Automatic annotation (TrEMBL):
Record-given protein name: VanZ family protein
Organism in which the protein naturally occurs: Psychrobacillus glaciei
Transmembrane segments: 65-81, 88-104, 124-140
Keywords: Membrane, Transmembrane, Transmembrane helix
Taxonomic lineage of the native organism: Bacteria, Bacillati, Bacillota, Bacilli, Bacillales
Origin superkingdom: Bacteria
Domain VanZ-like: 7-140
Amino acid sequence: MSKYLSWLAVILWMCLIFYFSHQPATASSELSTGITEFIEITVEKVAPNANFITENFHHIVRKNAHFFIYLVLGVLILHALKLNWTGKYRAMGIALFICVLYAMSDEVHQLFVPGRGAQVKDVLIDSAGATLGVVVYSVINRLNSRIL
């Protein structure tokens, strides 16, 4: 049962990525602006004298969203592969391949969304996030197997 649930989690996460990518530029910008404003308010409470440039930070929030959403995708895919298959390095390679392929298809999808476009830079950021997710999952999995 956990094998099926792990793949269901992958599919649901991919649907979430698709949902965010399908938002027109204005809706996507509103979401990330809201997150940026929340962080800005929090930072001002903690460090009232901080020199905070909202415009620059908004860009960082948007690119970090790419990174972290694909980090999670990398973890979910590798976990699903590990439950269904034992080849460690091959599973890592397949997980990364799926993530990069999905990142590329996601950018192509954005060509058809009003106000959005495809960026190679975003595929690279997505791929870096997926790579870190796969590596962190593998390291934690290896440490757990040594302890047990």
